[in-house]
Amino acid sequence: MGSAITGKRKFTEAEVRQMFADIKKQSPEHYFEFTDPFWIMITTILSHRTKDEVSNAAGRKLYDEFQDPEHLSEADEEHVARLISRVGFANVKASRVIGAARIVLKDFGGRVPDNIDTLMTIPGIGRKTANVILSDAFSIPSIAVDTHVHRISNRIGLCHTRLPDETEECLKKIIPYELWHGFNPTLVEFGKTVCKPISPRCNICSIKSHCDYFNNARKVGKD
């Protein structure tokens, strides 16, 4: 992994803690469809480039149909693709979730591994997905960088990075370790409701005074 390009401004630990607390107050509670590590893994694989509510519904359909890794591993790929048809790249993901079920059974005795490097040996699981699984399934502190986390971190000015892996490296230097668990879902909900990709709701944002995006926009407005 390359060196992260850290933020131009230095935030104190107290500032970071207060910003996260303020973000959390404005973020709805993140909904988790499953608590079982296997089904968290499957739903997270389905979630790539797909809205949470769609991937959660697709994961629930698979669970209702197959119940466990054994039955999913024996599933017909076309049938699975039909069940998850609303997710992005449904045909590809149908193959991946069946393959993941087979690997968990064959290589890991039916238990989802709780190690990032091992998780990433499963096709369909990259670094972001692995970090989500570690955090949501095993409560292992990790920072999963999806589009929301990458966007918000750079908008605020916590990081100035090009790639998600660089953002993860940057955030791990800035965010206190005990805040890693839950960091992703909190920022995901903040990104859906306040710091939206298009037309962010800066007027209601509780951390706008710290935000590069808001302060730069305000300067432009005064010119």
What does it look like?
It is a single chain. Helix content is 58%, strand content 0%. It is an all-alpha fold. Helix 2 packs across helix 3 and helix 9 crosses helix 11. Residues 1-7 have low confidence and may be disordered.
Helix-strand layout with pairing:
Elements: H1 13-26, H2 37-46, H3 52-66, H4 69-73, H5 77-83, H6 90-108, H7 116-119, H8 127-138, H9 147-156, H10 164-174, H11 183-193, H12 212-222
Sum up the structure in keywords.
elongated, 12 helices, Endonuclease III, domain 1, 58% helix, 223 residues, disordered N terminus, Endonuclease Iii, domain 2, mainly alpha
- Indicate the structural class: mainly alpha
| The CATH H-level homologous superfamily of the largest domain | Hypothetical protein, domain 2
Helix content: 55-70%
Report the span from N to C terminus: 40 Å
**Which outline best applies?**
elongated
What's this model, at a glance?
By secondary structure, the protein is an all-alpha fold. 58% of the residues lie in helices and 0% in strands.
